[in-house]
Write a structure and sequence with these properties.
The structure is a homodimer. Helix content of chain A is about 50%, strand content about 15%. Chain A has about 375 residues and is an alpha/beta fold. The structure holds a DNA duplex (30 and 30 nucleotides).
Chain lengths: ~375, ~375
DNA sequence: TATAGAACTCGTAACGTTTCGGTTTGTTGT
DNA sequence: ACAACAAACCGAAACGTTACGAGTTCTATA
């Protein structure tokens, strides 16, 4: 017993000895205050302790610069207070803005965000998810690239919460935060119609991506409701890249000399479309009216200022974080009740409205 | 003892009982193979085991779906295989591009990146660093907002590696990855000079930020080497925001009717400058020649295409990751030798060259 | 003032690894 | 066949928490 004494010197002694700081542990606090381990732990976790002990503990914590070891806690509680995030492209303002928002909120709740960029590659996305699973993050936030939700399996099986961003996955029952893409596209088309346009082109996203489908459907619906039959040659499908946007715009213009307006269905392609027009010497508004997507900053920098569909990134972030936080709380509580409640849960789907941001890129051709 | 037996059923049994998967542990593998704990651990960490045992172990791992618990390992080894990243703005393409690059490399080495956006707020930056420290990340990558390196103290004291991005901190001895801002600005000025410009304006960054200082100095030097005395009224200092860029461009134009060219010292302000010119009805190149900074995509979308200084984000990322990885290895090895070697280390500073990306935004006014 | 009940405290046993020192097994050269 | 040595193996003790059940101290009521 005496040997034990001499071996486990408290933090202060160790400090002296090593010549530099060694983190104090809960044991050091217990020893210093004369209280038991469990009492300290209870205090640290918001439990009640007698006033005089509270003072004692706080003094000891102060003096020894104690900080709880979150790794040890994590081992015991089986949670890392860490959320994994997998997105297609970090250097994509739409993604980045949402992530920033989520990060802010989650950090305020003690959660760290581990971010993985899968570069729009389904394989990389799988890798990233597995990586995060091995890192034992408590939940996953994902703007999915894979069509089926196969890559989500590890988290599904483990019953860990998943929140999908921007894109719904058919046949996958997950919490998701989306925008009303259909309505957004319809609005854009309507603005063109109100300004007298009839031959309206669309630069759409990949047919296999949710947002691409929805926005295209909205475009078609908008036209049909005005009694116009959508024509295939007025539709060009790009791959959500700048290059794709340039190509589509060129195609559209070449095949449709009579086209007066174009709706572009994401930010990168909007940029590409603008570049394409510049290079072809075609003037926005004067020659062809344009409504783009996302990124108000780019829109303001265009000449003339570009009208765009704006997505509520701030709110998307808030909703996603809320959803995650709720699920996290649920699974914490679920320890008490039967584990069934978790597996029985159904994914909540939140659909937020977009808004139009004014610009000068749509010409009124009625007069 | 018999009670102990019945309590610690192996993973397979537990699996059956609970009705859903329970992670197998190293103990389960030991039991299944009849080998000792230490042997399994040794195998997992790349140690040598006898061929037949290797096969045994691998089979057991396969069968029980064993995966090492990185949290438990972290508790024991005192490292989380996690790196903290603190940046001023995630939705800033320059930042985002560097982070993506770093993330890719670090993940390939088993490190996760915990990213914190401090919104260019020194206080938030301090918070973020403390947060990461409590999360016990193994190292810190930071594009600093605070002037003095005070916010880095926790990591300094703990002897945990720090890599600074983009900005050097005076009096702080840290590994840093920078670009040659001075030379970049000189190059831009020289291009203007070669095209016959003499009255060259500059939209510079905040006086207290490293890159702002360097780029301004480069501008001054470039002029002086050509025998031109820099004039204060040709210099407008912004705050690296779009709004600031707009304001500066307006000021410059109002105060200098004879100005023929402007160099803008970061991306956001470049965008702002372009917007400002658009709104004032001033044409790029024709009226005023412009060289901007960063973001080739934006430059390509401008009309006429904007000439810019390009920073090698890919290489910045590589160097930063390399630096971090090396330091990490060093501190791992340092356990053997005296701890002195760590504290004695001096910060390595890597300075990378920028390049000019062609555009049509500089007019030759000699003819 | 005694006492029931609540409120607080305690020791011990986990959580799943790694590591230390010592033991066993295998290999080589004679 | 046997020493001598290396390589592989082993159990137990950590790492710093939390959680359980039981024990202790308060507080309020009779």
């Amino acid at each position: 017993m005496s040997s034990r004494e001499s071996v486990s010197a408290d933090a202060a002694e160790r400090h002296e000895k090593a010549g530099n700081t060694v983190a104090a542990t809960i044991k050091d606090i217990a020893k210093k205050t004369g209280l038991g381990l469990a009492t300290i732990s209870s205090y640290l976790n918001g439990g009640n302790v007698r006033e005089k002990n509270r003072i004692l503990i706080e003094a000891a914590i102060e003096e020894l610069h104690f900080e709880v070891n979150e790794v040890a806690r994590g081992l015991k509680t089986n949670q890392t207070k860490t959320i994994g995030v997998v997105i297609p492209e970090l250097n994509n303002v739409f993604c980045a803005e949402i992530i920033t928002g989520i990060e802010d909120i989650m950090r305020n709740h003690g959660y760290a965000l581990v971010i993985c960029d899968c570069r729009t590659d389904p394989l990389r996305e799988c890798d990233a998810v597995e990586f995060l699973y091995r890192k034992r993050v408590d939940g996953l936030i994902n703007m999915p690239v894979n069509q089926d939700g196969r890559h989500l399996k590890p988290f599904m099986d483990a019953g860990k919460p998943i929140v999908l961003l921007d894109r719904k996955l058919n046949g996958v029952d997950c919490d998701s935060v989306l925008v009303d893409n259909l309505e957004a596209a319809k609005q854009a088309v309507n603005i063109f119609l109100q300004n007298g346009h009839r031959r309206i082109g669309m630069i759409g996203g990949p047919a296999e991506i949710y947002t691409g489908q929805e926005r295209l459907t909205g475009y078609r619906l908008g036209l049909m409701e005005a009694g116009i039959t959508p024509e295939e040659r007025l539709i060009a499908l790009g791959d959500y890249t700048i290059r794709g946007g340039m190509r589509c715009m060129r195609e559209l213009i070449e095949h449709n000399p009579d086209m007066t307006a174009v709706f572009v269905a994401n930010y990168e392609m909007t940029m590409g479309a603008v570049i394409g027009m510049n290079e072809m010497g075609i003037h926005m508004a004067d020659d062809i009216s344009v409504i783009g997507f996302d990124n108000g900053e780019f829109a303001r920098a265009c000449k003339p200022r570009l009208m765009i569909v704006s997505q509520p990134t701030r709110e998307i972030a808030e909703r996603a974080a809320d959803l995650m936080l709720t699920r996290l709380k649920e699974s914490a509580n679920a320890k008490d009740e039967g584990a069934v409640s978790i597996s029985r849960r159904r994914g909540r789907i939140i659909k937020l409205p977009t808004s139009m941001t004014e610009g000068k890129s749509v010409r009124n051709i009625t007069e």
